Amino acid sequence: MTRTHYDDELESVRCNLIQMGETTESLVGEALQAVAEFSPASQERASQLEAQTDHHHRMIHDQCLTLITRRAPVARDARLITGVLDAIVDLELIGDYAFEIVTLTASIKNRPPSQIAAQMAKAGGRIQEVLRTAIDNWRNRQGVPAQSVRSEEAGLRAECTGLYEKLSQLTSLPGAATTYVDLMVISRHLERILRHAVCVADAALSAVPADPVHQEA
After folding, report:
1. How far apart are CA 64 and CA 61, in angstroms?
2. How many domains does the chain have?
3. What is the pTM of this model?
């Protein structure tokens, strides 16, 4: 395999990762919409998006293994391939948690109080923005500095923890235990989505040096 062909294959892997990230972000959006107002159509769309995410994961994984076996990658290429392999695992897990959120909302009969719904929507929206930034880090490899999202993680995790504790206190209300337990699980899933989104962003930061020149280190 020539260097030019190898570079084309690496670029294809990166583009496929971006597509997987966009699909995963859409799935998170469906999950947040389902929490706000569930509909059977939302569950159907989420199911299709999850299937696409799983397909992307298998395809990209196979691409990376092929690249490794066809040509021993130099350090720069190895960082990219390793970063992609790490990122697709995190993206698949994000998709799993998002789909589980949609599934949980299907069983919630009583909508949460507006204050709880607003707090969950706010935290979820910010977490989705972290994921969007993570995908942008993989998208903008030419001239646009990648962004760390670690500084946002602690505050958002605190929000999720505060929401979880507030929901746990509401489980004692008559006839509301099941609803609030499901919402507690959803809040934990949002926190897990955040953690994996941060990992996707970090993988992009360390995957490839900023300069376009191929080198051994």
Report:
1. 5
2. 1
3. 0.90
200-214 pLDDT per residue, tens: 999 998 886 544 444
* Residue 55 is assigned to a structural domain of this protein: yes
- Per DSSP, the residues of 53-69 read HHHHHHHHHHHHHHHHH
Residue 21 tokens read as 């990230």
Nearest by Cα to 88 from 109, 69, 62, 66: 62
Note the pLDDT of residue 176.
Answer: 77
CA nearest neighbour of 60 among 96, 91, 80, 84: 84
State the pLDDT at residue 201: 94
147: CATH: 1.20.58.220
Average pLDDT along the chain: 89
216 or 55: which carries more pLDDT confidence?
Answer: 55
Q: What is the distance between the terminal CA atoms of the chain, rounded to a whole angstrom?
A: 21
| Per-residue CA distances from 173 to 24, 87, 114 (Å) | 35, 41, 16
- Tell me the residue range of the domain where 69 lies: 3-207
